[in-house]
Design brief:
Helices cover about 45% and strands about 15% of the residues. By secondary structure, the protein is α/β, with parallel strands linked by helices. It has two domains: about 45-160, Nitrogenase molybdenum iron protein domain (Rossmann fold, 3-Layer(aba) Sandwich); about 175-305, Nitrogenase molybdenum iron protein domain (Rossmann fold, 3-Layer(aba) Sandwich), CATH 3.40.50. Strand 4, helix 5 and strand 5 form a beta-alpha-beta unit. Helix 6 packs antiparallel against helix 7. The N and C termini lie far apart (about 95 Å). The relative contact order is 0.10.
Length: about 300
């Protein structure tokens, strides 16, 4: 056997030994180590996010997003975020702090879009705005955000859970014989009627209840329109829902005074049947939020139990 052949055989054996050892090493690496590497890599590639308001912060928590900055607020934020750097208040973003954080995305409520978008564009900060107008717009925003952050599965699960109680009453909804409702949304300064574009009005619509504002032909509204006492009386709703904001006691007194001073209110079906309900504004807020299942359940109890 020549030296050349011997050399080739030895080289082949060495290569074979290396391959076998490599396979053995790979197999004996603990599974936990591999998982740690994957988790670490995911954290590296996950977009960093500065959040500017409360409701989006809870959505991001549910999506397990990589939040690096939060707003200063008197409201409640997810506990896991409370020690993160701040970027100014909910109402006034500190762009100097935001720029220093250099997040991949700035995410906040759509109500702040007009105020912020010029500066966000100026400093080349990518943004996403959560539409909290009502439950439909909120769930659509969550799905869209899931696509942006590559969190589609979590987003679909979250969006679906917000309307979960609706699945239990499909057989109770009678679209041919709808019950009617007037939704009075008031503060100590003014009274409004909530239409189908509002948070509570949107839920009422999903429950198959007819809102007395539905026939006004106003498709695009803020969700609230000036109250029309005559319309409430002429429409004679089966139910009246009252939501007091601001000073709740003062607003409730205003509602009660208006009902007492106008004898026509006492003739309404809702009043006669004791179907006038004062709702908790902490549950029925002016904007959609992740507590919608609680709001839906309470309305189901009013209309269908």
């Amino acid at each position: 056997m020549t030296k050349s052949i011997k050399s080739k055989i030895i080289s082949s054996i060495v290569i074979l030994i290396i391959l076998v050892l490599s396979i053995i090493i790979i197999k004996i690496i603990p599974i936990n180590n591999l998982e740690n590497i994957e988790t670490y890599n995911n954290k590296i590639i996950s977009p960093t996010i500065a959040v500017g308001s409360i409701i989006p912060s809870f959505i991001l928590e549910k999506l397990e997003a990589n939040v690096v900055g939060i707003p200063i607020t008197n409201g409640i934020l997810p506990e896991k975020y409370i020690n993160l750097p701040t970027i100014g208040s909910v109402m006034e973003v500190d762009f100097e702090k935001l720029i220093k954080l250099n997040p991949d995305y700035f995410i906040t409520d759509i109500m702040f879009k007009e105020k912020l978008e010029d500066n966000l564009d100026k400093f080349n900060i990518k943004s996403f705005f959560i539409d909290t107008k009502n439950l439909t717009t909120l769930t659509k925003s969550i799905i869209s955000l899931g696509n942006v952050l590559d969190k589609q599965d979590q987003a679909e699960t979250l969006a679906d859970s917000l309307e979960d109680p609706l699945k239990n009453i499909k057989d109770k909804i009678n679209l041919d014989n709808k019950k009617s409702v007037a939704i009075m949304f008031g503060s100590s300064q003014s009274n409004l009627l909530a239409d189908k574009n509002s948070y509570i009005g949107n839920i009422v619509d999903k429950l198959g209840i007819e809102n007395i504002t539905d026939d006004l032909g106003m498709e695009q509204t803020s969700g609230y329109i000036p109250i029309n006492t005559e319309k409430i009386i002429s429409y004679n709703p089966d139910y009246i829902l009252r939501i007091s904001h601001g000073s709740k006691e003062d607003t409730k007194k205003m509602f009660d005074t208006e009902f007492d001073k106008n004898p026509a209110f006492k003739t309404l079906t809702a009043v006669k049947n004791h179907n006038v309900f004062d709702l908790d504004s902490s549950i029925f807020s002016s904007t959609a939020n992740l507590n919608s299942p609680i709001a839906i359940e309470e309305l189901i109890n009013i209309f269908y139990e």
